[in-house]
Amino acid sequence: MLETESLRKVFKKQVAVDDVNLYLKQGESVGLLGPNGAGKSTFISMIATLTKPSSGMVTWNGQDVIKNPNIIRPTLGVVPQEIALYKELSAYENVKFFGRIYRLKGKELESRVQEVLELVGLKDRQKELVKNYSGGMQRRINIAVALLHDPEIIIMDEPTVGIDPQSRHYILEMVKRLNEEKAMTVLYTSHYMEEVERLCDRIYIMDHGKVIATGTKEELTSILSSEETIQLELDQPSKPFEEALKEQSDVLKVTEWEKGIKLIVAKNTRRLAGIFQLAEHHQVSINSVDIQVPTLEDVFLHLTGRRLRD
Ligand SMILES: Nc1ncnc2c1ncn2[C@@H]1O[C@H](COP(=O)(O)OP(=O)(O)OP(=O)(O)O)[C@@H](O)[C@H]1O
After folding, report:
1. Pocket of ligand 1, candidates 8, 40, 42, 304: which has the most ligand atoms within 8 Å of its Cβ, to mutate?
2. Are 216 and 242 contained in the same domain?
3. Where is the signal peptide (predicted)?
């Protein structure tokens, strides 16, 4: 397990990371969500042993990483925000160059290079110069480089910022596959709520250097409410159906709206099948169902008074 305890970084008077406690268990996919300037890159850089903390601890399976960076370096693959590639070389030459830095040689080097190019979906275009690649493809090569030494943990610093939607989709799917199929542990930073929602088992929300909330998506959104709204669009109004819904124990409130009925139900107790059965019994057709649950964006707004992407 990778763990930080009261990890702090102060640049002159600027507190970039303010006593952050975070853990990453083997095989987990953890998101670090926060707006620009929240301190995500500085935090990652300390875990990756590239920046020295002002105070606090980083441990890997109980061992002190700050004193002994070498105990974690072979385990970590770090994808920085900036593209760090030689633009005049081909993708293949770039990855091979970095492979040599990882001290890979001969057949092993060649097979790892082909493996990672395959993982990022660029094996077929490996001979092209990186300068002719799109931003998204360059980002994928950056990721390939981080995977070369077959790390246990991959740490990604906003890997989808400023790239085309197709590459973004590819990267998200790839991270999911690495986590689910290769059991790779993932720490994924982003200011896109939908990305961490899609990829991560647990999420840390960071703002002004501090972790302001942590939990699974469900736990975080339950900060906001223990209820959710179900909006039913009906083919016709039906008082008997409305009355029957009111009698359901987990239905807290029933109101009409222009196209049907709105229910407030206790969270996680909704039984859509039951609602459909009731509708059928009262000969009402449900044209559409809209379940409105609070999002992480709403949680961030609630906690800070600001939007994530202000
Ligand atoms: N080397 C540095 N010297 C001085 N201040 C710094 C340095 N690096 C980061 N900071 C400051 O620390 C704070 C956190 O920055 P950091 O880059 O870690 O945030 P971030 O959440 O990763 O945001 P972004 O996505 O914009 O990179 C910011 O106020 C930034 O200006």
Report:
1. 42
2. no
3. none
d(CA 13, ligand 1 centre) in Å: 13
17 and 129 inside one domain: yes
- Asked whether residue 68 is assigned to any structural domain, the reply reads yes
Query: What is the identity of the amino acid at 144?
Result: A
Instruction: Please tell me the pTM assigned to this model.
Output: 0.78
CA gap 242, 269 in Å, rounded = 18
Ramachandran assignment for 170, one of left (phi > 0), alpha (psi -120 to 50 degrees), beta (any other): alpha
- Tell the residue nearest (CA) to atom 24 of ligand 1: 36
Provide the pLDDT confidence category of residue 88 given band limits of 50, 70 and 90: very high
Residue 35 Cα, ligand 1 centroid: separation in angstroms? 11
268: containing domain: 227-293
Judgement on whether residues 242 and 217 belong to the same structural domain of the protein:
no
Q: How confident is the model at residue 253 (pLDDT cuts 50, 70, 90)?
A: confident
Q: Which residues line ligand 1 (CB under 6 A)?
A: 11, 14, 16, 34, 36-42, 158
What interhelical angle do 135-147 and 165-180 show, nearest 10? 20
> For residue 300, is pLDDT > 90?
no
Quote the number of domains for the chain: 2
Nearest to 231 by CA among 253, 267, 262: 262
Beta bridge partners of 230: 263, 291
* pLDDT of 4 strictly over 90: yes
The DSSP bridge partners found for residue 163 are: none
